[in-house]
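Below is a filled-in request sheet from our internal design queue. Each sheet records the structural input a requester submitted and the sequence that came back. We keep these sheets so that new team members can see what a complete request looks like end to end.

REQUESTER: design group, bay 2
PRIORITY: normal
MODE: inverse folding
CHAIN LENGTH: 126
BACKBONE (tokenized):
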């Protein structure tokens, strides 16, 4: 009986140590880059170069929509919260952030920060 308790105690200790190591490894992993932050700068510059007036005026809106668009696997029709959060981010971003960008000054950093704040606002609503 005593040996069973000892085996059980040692097993639990091993599981706890392994769990702590796993958690520590995940905490040390570098953060994933924000997909919008990597997508938007290239998109808006390319759009400004390729488009002609008046379509060039839509570049900030087009790139916000393109870069916010989630992968199709995340946009599951049964997941209404993902839809609401996506459309909240899209509406907030186009309303508040698109006007920060112009042909002369794409203002990429300000747009990215603005979109991040919209993401925070919309995440808190859901």
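RETURNED SEQUENCE:
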């Amino acid at each position: 009986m005593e040996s069973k308790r000892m085996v059980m105690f040692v097993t639990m200790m091993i599981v706890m140590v392994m769990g702590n190591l796993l958690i520590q490894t995940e905490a040390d992993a570098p953060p994933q880059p924000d997909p919008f932050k990597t997508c938007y700068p290239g998109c808006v510059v390319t759009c400004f170069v390729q488009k002609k007036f008046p379509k060039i005026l839509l570049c900030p809106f087009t790139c916000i929509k393109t870069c916010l668009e989630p992968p199709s696997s995340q946009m599951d029709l049964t997941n209404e919260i993902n839809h609401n959060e996506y459309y909240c981010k899209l509406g907030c971003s186009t309303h508040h952030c698109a006007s920060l960008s112009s042909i002369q000054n794409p203002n990429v950093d300000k747009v990215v920060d603005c979109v991040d704040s919209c993401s925070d606002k919309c995440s808190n609503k859901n």
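SHEET NOTES:
- The longest helix spans residues 2-28.
- The chain has five helices and no strands.
FILED BY: M.R.
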